[in-house]
């Protein structure tokens, strides 16, 4: 114990010395300057078909300097934390700020000198478990999915991230944050002849912030047998019928629906045209905010990084803006975009604290964080009872959406037919298509089973930034949806 305490003292001393060095590097004469130090540690454990795969661990660390001067802005990033490496990065940022002076879309910096800190609440830390015990959880889950000889592939995995950031500014700002994220996953694939069906544990949607409690929240220990049995059952299930009918989406499919047809269209930098070269534009235009009927009056969508335990919770974005719960859509009416401080200044619109960077070597851009459909008042059984002919779809498996994030086609792992208010059986290869600008207006029911989830791999930007995003939603019912199966 004495040696461990000594190491902690050394680590704390090193952090303090680095902070002092970074603060000393910031140009005092700049209109605004910041240093954002990021340390990300990742762990990937997996078991496949009874075989423990080699554990993988990663450590990524570096600093991004930002300099504003005379209306110009520059960035310089480095993983070389020596005085010479840091000084070179500051010089690059200053050179770019000088080169862009008078050419920026924002005349002067709107950024803050914030002081604060945030840390993920953890009820049961993984640090309290030996690596062998962590792997044992996955071994048991992998084995439990082997329910039938027709299971030809199965696996259990756990991906964890521990991210520490420190943002300091030349105006006395200091924001320290530590985020701990967990993404457990399961998959079981069954096969007979040319028929192959796969069921997963939400396709990594059931992630969150915290420790071991994240795995318990969505019933990880009880899920493997069900996943194996459903994969086998899908082999004998009929193909999903084709037609216009009611559609009930489970929370793990709502993750994808929210992400693609609300999240990306409402990113303010995309609305302003920043994504045209890469992932398109948006059907949303600046004049829509405050008046546009995005969905039915049942649709209430919040941007909320303050939800405890959700994937993208934080106290401050990467520009130091304090996080707050904000309605983006209220009673179906579009309220505001997801735009950070710089985009707000560009557009003259109010936004949110969503300026986020994927790493130390990327500047912050407008990103989703926790984007949630708020709970309704109906139970899931009541939503089902209100369907004369329709299908309940679970767990995304495929997605396609046009460049303006409007026309889409999504597929799911499993469907459950609903006739006269009752579930009658499962179907395989269920798909549906729609148009964002009308799909949400056909929202006819929102359940009360608010479920926090997320995704570990949202990509955006040039150069690309892959970031982890939170989504929460209950079951949601839609009318007059084009549903179709995956076979002719």
Describe how the helices and strands are arranged.
Elements: H1 2-25, E1 32-48, E2 51-52, E3 56-69, E4 72-78, H2 83-99, E5 115-119, H3 131-144, E6 151-169, E7 174-192, E8 195-200, E9 208-209, H4 213-217, H5 223-236, E10 243-249, H6 251-263, H7 268-271, E11 301-303, E12 326-330, E13 333-334, H8 341-347, E14 355-356, E15 365-366, E16 370-373, H9 380-385, E17 389-401, E18 407-419, E19 422-428, E20 431-435, H10 436-439, E21 443-446, E22 451-460, E23 465-473, E24 476-484
Parallel strand pairs: 5-7, 10-17, 16-23
Antiparallel strand pairs: 1-2, 1-3, 1-6, 3-4, 6-7, 7-8, 7-9, 10-24, 11-12, 11-16, 12-13, 14-15, 17-18, 18-19, 18-20, 20-24, 21-24, 22-23
Helix pairs in contact: 3-5
Number of strands: 24
**What kind of sheet is the major sheet?**
9 strands, mixed
Number of helical segments?
A: 10
Described by the principal axes of the CA atoms, the overall outline is globular
Strand content: 35-45%
How far is the first residue's CA from the last residue's CA?
Answer: 67 Å
Brief summary of the model shown:
With 488 residues, this protein is α+β, with helices and mostly antiparallel strands. Helix content is 22%, strand content 38%.
Would you kindly provide a written description of the structure presented here, covering whatever features stand out?
The chain is α+β, with helices and mostly antiparallel strands and 488 residues long. The protein contains ten helices and 24 strands. The strands form four sheets. Strands 1, 2, 3, 4, 5, 6, 7, 8 and 9 form a nine-stranded mixed β-sheet that branches. Strand 1 (32-48) and strand 2 form a beta hairpin.
